[in-house]
Amino acid sequence: MKKWGFVLLALLLAGCVSEKGVIDKEGYQLDTRHAAQAAYPRIKVLVIHYTADDFDVSLATLTDKQVSAHYLIPANPPLHRGKPRIWQLVPEQELAWHAGPSFWRGATRINDTSIGIELENRGWRNTAAGKQFAPFAPAQITALIPLVKDILTRYNIAPQNVVAHADIAPQRKDDPGPLFPWQALAAQGIGAWPDAARVAFYLNGRSAYEPVETASLLDLLARYGYDVNPQMTPAQQKRVIMAFQMHFRPALWNGVADAESQAIAEALLEKYGQAG
Any idea where the N-acetylmuramoyl-L-alanine amidase domain is (predicted)? Predict the structure, then answer.
């Protein structure tokens, strides 16, 4: 035994056997045995988009020089060996240009800290009744769920940080719109959703659409994470409320401050805490 100990020591000194936590590279070594405590994951947010175009045009756009996303999911993903195929356009460790000017829970430059998933979907069109959004195919959502679960597990992304593009850029964006199945995904452990009993508690017997003060609702939304500031015009305030309603109260997303929207915001703050 003593002989083998001398042999191992000789090999170690000669560089033939690596120490645990020491990695040999070409021309140098890395000692990884002293990890800093003040280290934080880069990826903290998952952003869901729709492409507002067909798959071929979407793929061409997202692989051009102007915009990009980490993943693109067709409306009806082709099956290969029984599994839906998803297109990865940018490695997760690299930054993609999908969020644009954005804000969420005190942070800007959301591209720097997020993964973006684009869903092939035509978006909305104007009708006599206003904006009409296109539904999402069940096969597309079926493909999305395991991908998102993998991402959330890898980066420990908090439920409140699984967001719509409209949540982080309400003045510019509507996607993925009110037909995206946020509630169904929350039942699968994906994203935030308020507890119905707590919404009823905060509603406290009021009619769901009873008007409330816009400033009161916006204060709650700012605390939850939306970009709200005193200089906003009434039209800009409405856009923030619409984004919130499309995500958490899609039955009516008119941008009007009402009792149910207020109760939902209060229930979300109670469950997930306020930004910062």
Answer: 31-177
Structural domain including 218 reads: 196-272
Alpha carbons 122 and 73: distance in angstroms, whole number: 13
pLDDT in tens, 104-123: 999 999 999 999 999 999 99
List the catalytic residues: 118
pLDDT (tens digit per residue) in 225-250:
999 999 999 999 999 999 999 999 99
Q: Above 60 in pLDDT, residue 17?
A: no
